Amino acid sequence: MSDSPPATAPAIRATAMAADANPYGKVFVGWLMGQMALAAGSVASRHSGARCPVVAADGFSFTTPVSIGEEVSFHAEIVATGRTSLTVAVHVWRRDRHGEGASKAATGRFTLVAMGDDDRPRPVDSHAIEQHAALEGSELG
């Protein structure tokens, strides 16, 4: 990923609120991680057509603090699939509330497992993932 926000729409977008901040006016890392997990879950569920809880998270890097009032965009993309799992990379960008200044705030990876109605892992339908990716590509063009 480059030094500028992706051209694609974020999986989710939020405004950093005072309730999410530490005494120094910066957002708690735990809030960022929770929002990142929500973005990963949204993308994994849409692509797999199943409920996808997070089973692992790693590779976190927090590079720029997020201040109260800033817009925070969570860009998520599937980077690997297994038989029942998906790995989703999430890149977080913060933007000044009253301007266009933006910088990368965090990155991380989440592993999620597609779950069936019986609450057991089920195979990821890779064909559905390819169809969804093709549909998103055609919507952008």
Automatic annotation (TrEMBL):
GO biological process, one term: fatty acid catabolic process
Ranges of residues in domain HotDog ACOT-type: 6-118
Disordered: region residues: 116-141
Gene3D superfamilies in the record: Hotdog Thioesterase
One Gene Ontology CC term in the entry: cytosol
UniProt GO MF annotations: long-chain fatty acyl-CoA hydrolase activity
Biased composition (Basic and acidic residues): 117-130
Keywords assigned by UniProt, alphabetized: Hydrolase
Pfam families: 4HBT
Family (UniProt): Belongs to the acyl coenzyme A hydrolase family.
The protein's name: Acyl-CoA thioesterase
Taxon lineage: Bacteria, Pseudomonadati, Pseudomonadota, Alphaproteobacteria, Sphingomonadales
